[in-house]
């Protein structure tokens, strides 16, 4: 019952966003404004406040990164191998890179943040922020560099590839919320009660707005394209990656709360950024679109199981 109370409201809000477009209560373009509010204002406020006021588990970030990004690396390699087996034209190695991105790039912002905070509470803020702070730039960098390597189209230095990513990172509202939260925490000044309440009210809107925006966004994704690829991406993302993350977290002896964050983030369905990457290179656009839709649908079944596993780890710890 406790698991249902954690997961059901999350997917109910996603369904509400989808239904609002389906029944034309809002336009399909409404996701732009809602997303901008959620990811430029409300969720940065949420991250800032939780980092400032929360208690952090005493754990090495390198062990946590080792578990999460170790699982990501293993899944990425497996995705490249599977893609090579199912592609019709073996020379299309660029497809393999997009296939791998779709298999590891989870929706850890729109869906991950609300679900992790709901399941684990504010104690999860620290580990969650450490993963969020490097996830997008690392995945985009690895994807772009590998794409240029396999296509042999590199026209500039590695720095020319890295610099735009770093520049975007420096302006990213989520990263700014995390960064300012860490800085303010180290000052030891805390938050004035009026300021704290104001930020808290703003932060409370972040998760619902993000989930509604996700539901609206899903309206344009369809389960179409190469169903073998769609199924393989979904299996890798929803089953293989969280299983490997759980094994590595236990191997590295991570505390229960950190294990929970690592495994839940690894279990998130394929996110829209994987679709954006596919569109950018015009490779596997339909299969990745299908994976975004199918993974999110199947996550309504897989995530309750993951939450129960995480709850068991916490009780056992």
Describe this structure in words.
The chain contains 14 helices and no strands. It is mainly alpha-helical. Helix 2 (30-53) runs antiparallel to helix 10. The protein is globular and about 60 Å long. It starts with a helix and ends with a helix. The mean pLDDT is 86. Keywords: Cell membrane, Membrane, Transmembrane, Transmembrane helix, Transport. It is a multi-pass membrane protein.
What key phrases describe this protein's structure?
80% helix; AEC family transporter; transmembrane; 0% strand; 14 helices; membrane; mainly alpha; Mem_transp_PIN-like; 317 residues
- Strand residues, percent: under 5%
- Tell me how many strands there are: 0
Order of helices and strands: HHHHHHHHHHHHHH
Percentage of residues assigned to helices: over 70%
Main sheet record: none
Computed over alpha carbons, the radius of gyration is 19 Å
* Spatial gap, N to C terminus: 21 Å
Mean pLDDT: 86
Query: How many helices in DSSP terms?
Result: 14
Low-confidence sequence ranges: none
The chain-level structural class is mainly alpha
Query: Per the principal axes of the C-alpha atoms, what is the gross shape?
Result: globular
